[in-house]
Design a protein that fits this description.
- The protein is α/β, with parallel strands linked by helices and 397 residues long.
- It has a domain of 239 residues: FAD/NAD(P)-binding domain, CATH 3.50.50.
- It is built from 13 helices and 21 strands.
- The strands form four sheets. Strands 7-6-15-16-17-14-18-21 form an eight-stranded mixed β-sheet.
- The longest helix is centred in the C-terminal third of the chain and has 23 residues.
- It is globular.
Length: 397
């Protein structure tokens, strides 16, 4: 077995792991990033596409946002649709000028991978048989196989950024409290080769179920319809998908443009939080520690917020010897996480068909009318959607 040494071992080359590596590098802290999937897979998987103001500010500070600003699409509002009417919520106007940027998680990951490889920093894809050891004492390590050779990576800290199904949380799960909620319904999402039919996102509450009109670029639309989480994608030919989208997003005087569907799939809706996010010298970040329903556009942003806090804590530890930051890492992150869980659950419950009871629908419509007619109600949505101030001093507020 070949022995290696670094300061921070990062398991997972998603946005959390790669952003953490970049922030640590900027502070002069060494790291090695390992990933079980291939580079091609990591750069191709379609995920979130909405960046909060704080996430953009963080990527700016990290020095990896040049393409984001060239190709990202800034949005200052969203539409809420119900009862056949579309209502505009002016996000920036209600949140002191803060905005969102539509820029796919896939693109963020591509930028971070290119940046790390250009700098010649360690980033290993297609590792296998990964295990974490010694995180309860001062000598943690990560063992793995890469290119047919077995390695033992000795480090000071392990960052578990390897997602919901990764090995890091599994290694400490017996020591954690897990909080979950399953919704029973999911999103059927498509990428379509057609220009978006709206300049801003449209969230639609319809009696047949939720629908969302989003985008990935001026030429690519991203759209969703609510469906049963256990449904088979084979039950949804392209014609049925477009029919449902036309019905659920339709309003008088407006037309939804259709085009070739490039990709489609069904994703279940759930909430999940693991507490604490630190066990000894193993730190969890991103989807390894929490999942939110996508309605509030918080998953990617929470992952970036986690690693901003963790990078600050580690930088403070290495530069001063003080462990105050790492001791409070979990507490600092969880305050923001639970706020995002609440907001995402609120948006999900307000916009989706939850059952067949007329009482439930009347409650939803009442909530939607309040949010779209009251400045106070709309401000709650706007401030949470564009992102509340970050706990980390690294991200401007």
């Amino acid at each position: 077995m070949r022995s290696l040494r670094t300061q921070v071992a990062i398991v997972g080359a998603g946005p959390a792991g790669l952003t953490l590596a970049r922030l640590l590098h900027n502070s002069g802290i060494e790291s090695v990033v390992i990933e079980s999937r291939s580079r091609e897979y990591v750069e191709a998987r379609i995920r979130a596409g909405v960046l909060e103001q704080g996430s953009v500010d963080l990527l700016d500070a990290a020095g990896v946002s040049a393409r984001l600003h060239r190709e990202g699409i800034v949005h200052h509002g969203i539409h809420l649709q119900f009862d056949g009417e579309r209502h505009h919520v002016p996000l920036s106007q209600l949140s002191d000028g803060r905005a969102i940027v539509v820029y796919g998680q896939t693109e963020v990951v591509k930028d971070l991978i290119a940046d790390r490889q250009q700098a010649g920093l360690p980033l290993l894809f297609e590792v296998s048989d990964t295990a974490v050891q010694g995180f309860q004492d001062e000598h943690p390590s990560v063992s793995f196989t890469h290119a047919g050779e077995r390695f033992q990576l000795h480090c000071d800290v392990i960052a578990g950024c390897d997602g919901f199904h990764g090995i890091c949380r599994a290694a400490v799960e017996s020591r954690l409290s897990l909080f979950t909620r399953e919704y029973g319904y999911g999103w059927l999402g498509i990428l379509a080769a057609v220009a978006p039919s709206s300049e801003e996102l449209v969230y639609s509450n319809h009696q047949r179920g939720f629908a969302l009109l989003s985008l990935r670029s001026p030429e690519i639309s991203r759209l969703y319809v609510q469906c049963d989480a256990a449904d088979d994608i084979a039950n949804w030919p392209d014609s049925r998908i477009w029919e449902e989208l036309q019905i659920r997003l339709g309003v008088d005087g407006w037309e939804l443009a259709e085009g070739p569907i490039l990709e489609k799939g069904i994703t279940g809706m759930r909430c999940f939080v693991a507490e604490p996010m630190r066990v000894g010298r193993l730190f969890l970040a991103g989807d390894a520690a929490h999942i939110v329903p996508p309605t509030g556009a918080k998953g990617l942003n929470l992952a970036l917020a986690d690693v901003a806090v963790l990078a600050d804590a580690l930088t403070h530890w290495y530069s001063t010897g003080s462990q105050s930051g790492i001791e409070h890492y979990s507490e600092d992150c969880l305050r923001r996480i639970w706020r995002a869980e609440h907001f995402s659950n609120w948006m999900t419950s307000m916009l989706h068909r939850v059952d067949d009871q007329p009482f439930s629908r009347r409650l939803q419509l009442s909530e939607l009318r309040y949010v779209t007619s009251s400045e106070a109600g709309a401000r709650v949505l706007a401030e949470n959607y564009v992102g509340l101030p970050w706990a980390s001093s690294r991200a401007p507020v």
